[in-house]
Amino acid sequence: MSQQQGQSIRCLVAKVGLDGHDRGAHVIARAFRDAGFEVIYSGLHKAPEEIVQAAVQEDVDVLGISILSGAHKTLVPKIMDGLEEYDAKDDTLVLVGGVIPDEDKAVLKDEGVAAVFGPGTSIEETIEFVRENAPDR
Amino acid sequence: MSAEHDALLESLLAGEHRALARVISKIENRAPGYRDLVSELYAHTGNASVIGITGSPGAGKSTLVDKLAETYRERGETVGIIAIDPSSPFTGGAVLGDRIRMASTVGDMDVFVRSMSARGTLGGLSTATADAVKAMDAFGKDKIIIETVGAGQNEIDIVRTADTVAVLVPPGSGDSVQTLKAGILEIADVFVVNKADRSGADRTVQELLEMIDLGEGSGFASAGAGHHGAGAIADDDDIDTDKTESAWRPPVVETVATKGEGVGSLIDELGGHRQYLEDSGTLADRTRMRYAEEIRTLLREDVHTLLQGELERAGGVDALAEAVRRGETDPYTIADDALDPIETCLEELEFEHLEAASNSR
């Protein structure tokens, strides 16, 4: 009974590392909200373990990592390892957005990242991807 | 209970954070079978102190909660935090941003922060909050802090889930008439004037103290309209509760959350209130009142859901609304017609098994 409220897609929009620019993350957070998702925004300058803690405690379906600093090859694997440690890697849809060179995309996908959205990706495309691929729990 | 839920409950009781997170999700989602899961939790609860923190937007609640959590951790206690933010009434979407300000305790899994938003109506959020508190209590958290913006009745329901309620009042938040208005101030067990280094703080403290004196002197408190909110939801049988509760005089604490000033005193006052609750026997009264409210909310929600289903089968509420718009009928007639068969059923209903439960104590 009382199941009318139903499931809502929960996303953590995370800024990891040293880059100090989060306009893109704000735009995504706002667009996700308008799409009816519940968005938790991490704030700037987070360490990978902070992101993992938030993702696990908030039990998010989607983790969107925004990264512009070029440190994605060190930071993203740390986050993925952290998720695995809490047994949360398999049912969290992990997305990376930012300036990622083509040759690094495969590396991130090997780590378990579902999609990499570079500059120029439309918001609609991102939302559509989340709707289609958010884990069914 | 399903095997999946059995395993989940076991992991939660064993202290696995992911299991706690997942149980709260099931509560929020009203996932199939979640009620059995919550029922099972009750047997493991009762050890946590539950503290509600409320106040207007920008009063500094999140920063203060962060510092409270940090101090409790230094004292060796584990902390659960439920941060509640509003959701859009149009899309249901929400940005839950309180986590950003909880920076002192990152990397410490023994501070478990969970953001929640209002996904539905009709007390859904307060039920979900109360259930999430049960989950954290059963998990073994020593202190559970519920943080919510004090904007209206819904928030008052939520903070009533707490044993002790602290209301944050920013300096210069209006003249003394504001503090006489009904609502959020009445439910305070402790007042906190945060940002106490700002001008106007002294005056706000003074106004709060005057208001508290007024409440005591006028005998309002014992007449059931006191500043503890107990009167507002109390039934006739709860009137004696107000008398005992009026013995508590809400202290006013000054804090500067950003610098951690006054946090120790606040913790002492919160602890003092807890002690008072236990010594005076008020804790039992409050707990009983809270469960009464939980039962009422559940019944309201469930009856609503049942009726909703019937309404859908009858063609939905939109068609009825359209009939009202055309002037063919009116909402009162529709409600009467819909409830008539239910009233008939209720007359024939017997609550024998419930009577047995309430007599067995």
Report the sheet-strand fraction of chain A: 15-25%
Average pLDDT taken over every residue of chain A? 89
Q: What is the chain-wise order of helices and strands of chain A?
A: EHEHEHEHEH
pLDDT averaged over residues of chain B: 83
Helical proportion of chain A, percent range: 40-55%
Question: Helical segment tally of chain A?
Answer: 5
Shape assignment of chain B? globular
Strand element count of chain B:
8
CA radius of gyration of chain B is: 22 Å
Q: Oligomer, anyone?
A: heterodimer
Instruction: Work out the helicity level of chain B.
Output: 40-55%
Topology:
The complex is a heterodimer of chains A (137) and B (361).
Chain A: E1 10-15, H1 23-34, E2 38-41, H2 48-58, E3 62-67, H3 72-85, E4 93-98, H4 102-111, E5 115-117, H5 123-133
Helix pairs in contact in A: 2-3, 3-4
Chain B: H1 3-13, H2 17-29, H3 34-42, E1 49-55, H4 61-74, E2 79-85, E3 94-96, E4 111-117, H5 124-139, E5 143-149, H6 153-159, E6 164-168, H7 176-180, E7 190-193, H8 201-217, H9 230-233, H10 239-245, E8 252-254, H11 263-280, H12 282-313, H13 317-325, H14 331-348, H15 352-359
Parallel strand pairs in B: 1-5, 1-6, 2-4, 2-5, 6-7, 7-8
Care to describe what's here?
The complex is a heterodimer of chains A (137) and B (361). By secondary structure, chain A is of the alpha/beta class. Helices cover 42% and strands 18% of the residues of chain A. In chain A, strands 2-1-3-4-5 form a 5-stranded parallel beta sheet, sandwiched between helices. Chain A is globular. The N terminus of chain A is likely disordered. Chain B is an alpha/beta fold and 361 residues long. Chain B is globular and about 60 Å long. The two termini of chain B are 26 Å apart. About 8% of the residues of chain B have low confidence. At the A-B interface, helix 1, strand 2 and helix 2 of A face helix 2, strand 3, strand 4 and helix 12 of B.
